[in-house]
Design goal:
Helix content: 40-55%
Shape: globular
Order of helices and strands: HHEEEHEEHHH
Radius of gyration: 16 Å
Oligomer: single chain
Strand content: 5-15%
Strand order of the largest sheet: 1-2-3-5-4
Structural class: alpha+beta
Number of helices: 6
Distance between the termini: 23 Å
Length: 183
Amino acid sequence: MLTPDRYPGVVENWRRAAFDYHRDHGRNFFTDFISVHDMLGLTVRHRSAVAIATLTPKKENEVVVMAKEMNKDYLQLLYAVLRTFLDDKKLYSFTMAMALPPLADTAKGMFYTPSNAIPAFTRIISRGRLSELRSDISALEMFTFFNVNSDPFALIKEIESSVHVRLRFHNTSAQHNANLTNL
C-alpha cells in the first residue's frame, strides 16, 4: 500500500516511534536499534545492509534486514536470509513485509522529518514447519500474546554462515560502521 505521507499499520508505529525517539533523545532510532543488536552480536552485515535477529520478535526466527535505501547490498542480504530460512532451517512457510523510505523528498507528513525517515527494511517471521500440527500464526499470537521459542543468537549465527557462503563478502568493523551510520 502506498500513501503520500503515512505508512500502514506496524510500519507507521515504527516511523512514529522514530519521530518520538529523535524528538526526545536527539538520536536516530534505527541507528541505535542496530547498535544495540550489534553490541549483543545479533547482526550480520553485508556492505551497506544489516540483518538483525531481533530481541523483541513477534514470532520465532524473526529477522529484520535493513539499509538506508533499497540497493544491491540490501537485496543480496535479503536473498541470503531467505535462503537461510529455506535451505538451512528448512522453514518453507514465513511471512515477510517490506517498507521503504519515502518515495519523494517532498513527503513531509505530520510526523516526517529527514532525521526520522525510515530506512528500507524487511521483516521476516517464521510461520513454523509445515509438518507440525501448529505450524501457523494465530490472531491470538499476532495481536495479543506473543509466544517466541527461538534463540536470536543461534539464528544470527546461521544467517552469518549463510551470508559468508552465499555472498562471499566480509566487511571490517570500520567499514560496517561507516556504511550504516545514521540510517
